[in-house]
Amino acid sequence: MATDVEVPALGESITEGTLANWLKKPGEAVAADEPIAELETDKVSVEVPSPVAGVLTEQLVKAGDTVAVGAVIARIDQNATAGTAPQPSPAQTAAAATTNPSGAGETPLLRGDEHAPEPAMADAEASTGDDHVTTLSPAVRRAVLEYHVDPTSIKGTGKDGRLTKDDVIAAAQAQKVEAPLAKAPSAPAQAAPAPQAKTSPVSGERREERVKMTRLRQTVARRLKEAQNTAAMLTTFNDVDMSAVIDARSRYKDLFEKKHGIRLGFMGFFVKACALAAKDVPSVNASIEGDEIVYHDYLDVSVAVSAPKGLVVPVVRDADSMSFADIEKAIAEYGRRAKDGTLTVDEMQGGTFTISNGGVFGSLLSTPIINPPQSAVLGMHRIEERPVVKDGQIVARPMMYLALSYDHRLIDGREAVTFLVRVKEAIEDPTRLLIDL
Q1: What is the pLDDT of residue 203?
Q2: Which position among 65, 254, 318, 408 bears the catalytic label?
Q3: Is residue 412 flagged as an active site residue?
């Protein structure tokens, strides 16, 4: 009895996605709710679970195909035995007959590659079959071809033992180290050896690689450009002395971690400072809908997080009423799940204000772009000691540049500067956060 595997609901307003990778091969046993494929949407990557336990008998779409919500992408046979060779669908049989009538003497190609495989890849396919190759992600396939390694000889460190690009690169480097480093002593001239497979690009060779943009990257590009085209964006700057916050973290970090099980970071201070400043300048936490201004009496902070497939912005809801520990726990959890690719669409929808910390990557100064329909975004940057004047003396202080980009249609320059000054005051004197000043 075969059960269809359908594309699950992907969230509000999302009607389709791209099948990024198959996690199971035809003929493999799967458990109920076990992921068999990975889908990439405009916002997140999601896994498609098997509805029943059985054996995956058919893959009806290939990696890279666009599939709609509710579409059937595979079939699970509850009565089949694992290892049974899958029966090709009529469409696959017809395609095979058209491209290779004789059915003999043809080496399978990597999906998405118009050229024959390199020798190392061809050997791997000959020994394992095409099904093994289709389990490799596009990035891993390109790495295998580029570094000329045998994927069957590499132990994967990814989920369920799958190969990652780092695994391929590490294997290639290991082979390079193990290769002889010196030539044998001079000997009488011998016949030239038989030509070998090309193992590295010719010195000075100019190379190009074309990679299709992921759906997430396309969405990020479109939304950022829409923000530039729609909002009257302007950025105002200030700097902040981080001495008080650094001192507070140094004094209480051990007690804080012991009590709450999470480290005390800078983001909690800035979220609290923005919540305090938004009370004085509510337009920064507002948005424009048509010819109306929508003011929010809550602060849902979108925290920009770097993920392997692009920037994602999960939302810390009601951040203005959360404790330092709750804020730090929420942000740490979002960061971990962003790297794992397990964030849900609902967790990234909404948000009334954004904080982006480019300082973790070493950024000194930037002009962040607002995240519509929000009207403002705060950019944090790296902390470095700079000379400043204190009480008539030039002293070194740990300073950070702050940047507030805002929609000038809604927020006036006076309001933007006032908001940034309120944040600066709260960070330089954290006591203000406790007495709501």
Answers
A1: 67
A2: 408
A3: yes
- What is the C-alpha to C-alpha distance for residues 195 and 201, in angstroms, rounded to an integer? 15
pLDDT band for position 217 (cuts 50, 70, 90): confident
Tell me how crowded residue 13 is: count the other CB atoms within 10 A of its CB: 9
Give the span between the Cα atoms of 243 and 432, in whole angstroms. Answer: 15
Please identify which residue in the block is written with the tokens 């519509």: 372
Give tens-digit pLDDT for 248-264: 999 998 999 999 999 88
Which residues make beta-bridge pairs with 389?
Answer: 394
Domains of the chain: 1-106 (2.40.50.100), 118-177 (4.10.320.10), 233-435 (3.30.559.10)
- Three-state DSSP class for residue 8: coil
CB 319 within 8 A of CB 273: no
Q: Name which of 87-96, 225-234, 314-323, 374-383 the model is least confident about.
A: 87-96
Q: CA 19, 24, 27, 28: dihedral to nearest 10 degrees?
A: -160
User: Catalytic annotation on 123?
Assistant: no
Note the pTM of the prediction, 2 decimals. Answer: 0.59
- Closest C-alpha among 384, 425, 422 to residue 401: 384
| Cβ neighbours around 33 below 10 Å, total | 11
Out of 160, 247, 412, 429, pick the active-site residue: 412
- Amino acid occupying residue 233: M
Hey, what amino acid is at 70? G
Helices and strands counted in the chain (H then E) = 11, 19
395, 242 in Cβ contact below 8 A? no
Rounded to the nearest integer, the mean pLDDT of the chain is: 78
DSSP 326-339: HHHHHHHHHHHHHH
- Give 285-301 pLDDT, tens digit per residue: 999 998 999 999 999 99
